[in-house]
Design a protein that fits this description.
Blueprint: E1 9-12, H1 18-29, E2 33-36, H2 42-56, E3 60-62, H3 70-84, E4 89-92, H4 107-135, E5 138-143, H5 156-176, E6 181-188, H6 194-207, H7 211-219, H8 231-242, E7 253-256
Parallel strand pairs: 1-2, 1-4, 2-3, 4-5, 5-6, 6-7
Helix pairs in contact: 1-2, 1-8, 3-4, 4-5, 6-7
Length: 263
């Protein structure tokens, strides 16, 4: 399917691994030029950047904006517009997790999670909006979570941030609808990322369970399908929302969670 995105420009935050890297790859495969962003070994990031560019025949730049720093996020948007002359798609994906009972939740971890998972999206949207308004078109796609719709214990900061992302998305959608700009949230269930893989191994060791038991009875307990959401499934929705086909989807929180939030 041709999504009509060739030559468009996207920023994908938190795109040096996991969901973000997969989303960047899906956009690049459609001919979208990219600014990727995230943490990691500089040599490994350069390998990923060059690999995306070579594989898909697109231009890919890296910007190392710290997602806790609003001025750096604004600079990343300005960098994309300077490098490519436009910014069509903004994918706010950067996120971290920390698990703790509320009475013991470290204040610095709360502040960090809210900054990276929620406030960074505000800064990026704020910076990207003027250019998108001038162009008369834009797509803002926020990677939220099933935890934007339901809660789990011991994840107070993450759940609060993801609920906040949905509220931010709705507000932006209403403000910018007449400018030809849409804002939507994708709410994935569990995806088998390196982060989740580490969680599986740690839980298996801590509970004396096999990794298969952890996957089915702990990680995927809330997902009725008992299957991980795949990168391709998320990418299909991302491309739809980024294309003209998704122009009338605005302010939505779209679940891709195997039925987790159906009950």
């Amino acid at each position: 399917m041709d999504y009509g995105l060739k030559g468009h420009v996207a920023i994908v935050t938190g795109s040096t691994s996991g969901i973000g890297l997969a989303m960047a790859g899906a956009l690049a495969a459609e001919g979208v030029n990219l600014v990727i962003n995230g943490l990691g070994d500089p040599a490994a990031i350069e390998t990923e950047r060059a690999g995306l560019a070579q594989k898909h025949g697109v231009e890919v730049r890296y910007h190392g904006a710290d997602m806790t720093k609003g001025d750096q996020i604004a600079d990343m948007v300005a960098f994309a517009e300077k490098e490519f002359g436009r910014l069509d798609i903004l994918v706010n994906n950067a996120g971290i997790q920390f698990v703790s009972p509320i009475e013991a939740f470290p204040v610095e971890k709360w502040d960090q999670i809210i900054a990276i998972n929620l406030t960074s999206a505000f800064h990026a949207i704020r910076a990207a909006t003027p250019g998108m308004k001038k162009a008369g078109r834009g797509r803002i796609i926020n990677i939220a979570s099933a935890h934007g719709l339901v809660a789990s214990p011991f994840k107070s900061a993450y759940v609060a941030a993801k609920h906040g992302i949905l509220g931010l998305t709705k507000t932006v959608a209403l403000e910018l609808a007449e400018a030809g700009i849409t804002a939507n949230s994708i709410c994935p269930g569990y995806v088998h990322t390196p982060l989740v893989d580490g969680q599986i191994k740690d839980t298996a060791k801590a509970r004396g369970m096999s990794e298969d038991e952890v996957v089915r009875n702990v990680i995927l307990a809330a997902q009725p399908t008992k299957k991980f959401v795949t990168f391709d499934q998320l990418a299909g929705l991302l491309l739809y929302l980024a294309s003209d086909m998704g122009a009338s989807v605005n302010g939505a929180a779209l679940s891709v969670d195997g039925g987790w939030t159906a009950g």
